[in-house]
Amino acid sequence: MPAVFLRDRSFLRVTGAEAEAFLHNLVTTDLVSLGADEARPGALLTPQGKILFDFMIWRDGSGFLLETDAVQKDGLLKRLTMYRLRAPVDFAAIESEGVTVAWGENKVENRRDSRFAKAGITLTRTPGQHGDDTEALYQTVRIANGIAVSGLDFALQDAFPHDVLMDLNGGLGFRKGCYVGQEVVSRMQHRGTARRRVVIVTGSTGLPATGTELTAGGKPIGTLGSTDGTKGLAIVRIDRAGEAIAAGTPILAVDREVSVALPAWSGLSFPAQADEASA
C-alpha cells in the first residue's frame, strides 16, 4: 500500500519547560488531550479569527513538532518567536525536509493523522523520506475525503477554521482557554454562523483549473480548489448551494455542471434555505 514522500513540508521543534503551555495558549489545537501517537491539525490565527499559519502538530518527547508547508516555515518561526517574550521555550528548524505519509497495510508506524482518522482511514506521518510512491496517490485520497490544504484549497488570511472543517477534524479545541482569535471562533461555533464549508465536487468530465468560480443561477457560491480528474474540493457557501440543490438549479464550473457533497465524516448537511445554515 502507498507510502508517499511530500517534499514540500518542513518542521519546527518546540521545546522547553513551558512548551506545552506556551503553544496551548497560542494555537487552536487542544494540546492537553493530544495523544502520544497522534498528529492533529492546528493553526495560528489573526486576531480576527482567520488562519495566518496552519500546520500538523504532534508530541516529540517532552516537546512538539510542527509540520508545515515549507513556504510558511520562516514566517511561522518568526511569529512564534515574537510571542515568546520571556517564556522558557526554544524553537529550532529541523534540517531534514519533507514528510512521508503512508496508509494501508504498509503504513509507516508513526503519528496518526486525526483528519484522516475521522474519515475512517489510518494514515501516518513520519519526518523524512520513507517511501517513493507517486504524490498523486495521496492527493487522490485527500480529495476523496474532503481534506483541504492551504495554498491549494484556500488562501492564508482568507479562511476561518470552520471554513476548512477544523471544528470537526480535531484542529479546534473548544474546552481550552483563550488563544489568538478565540473569541471569533467561539462566536461562530455557538451562534452557528459558519456558512462556508469544504465540499467534494464531482463532474462528468475533468474539472477546470483551481481557482475557477462555482456558480448557481448566475451567482457565485464558491471557488474550486484541488482537482483530481473528475473530483475536486471547493469551499462554498452551503446555504446558497443548499438552495440551488433544493430548487434543482444547476451548479456550474464555467459551463460544466457539477455536483457538490459535504464529506460524509463531517456529519454536515446542506440547508434547504439560506437562513437554516449552521455549523
Please explain how this structure is put together.
Helices cover 19% and strands 33% of the residues. With 279 residues, the chain is an alpha+beta fold. It has a nine-stranded mixed sheet with strand order 1-7-9-8-3-4-5-2-6, with helices on both faces. The protein has a six-stranded antiparallel beta barrel with strand order 10-13-12-11-14-15. A hairpin with a 2-residue loop joins β11 and β12.
Content-based structural category: alpha+beta
Count the strands?
A: 15
Strand content is 25-35%
The main sheet comes to: 9 strands, mixed
Tally of DSSP helical segments: 6
Determine Rg (CA atoms, Å): 19 Å
Helix content: 10-25%
Q: Low-confidence segments, ≥5 residues, pLDDT <50?
A: 275-279
Order of helices and strands: EEHEEEHEEEHEHHEEEEHEE
CA-CA gap between termini:
35 Å
Average pLDDT works out at 94
Shape: globular
Strands of the widest sheet, in order across it, are 1-7-9-8-3-4-5-2-6
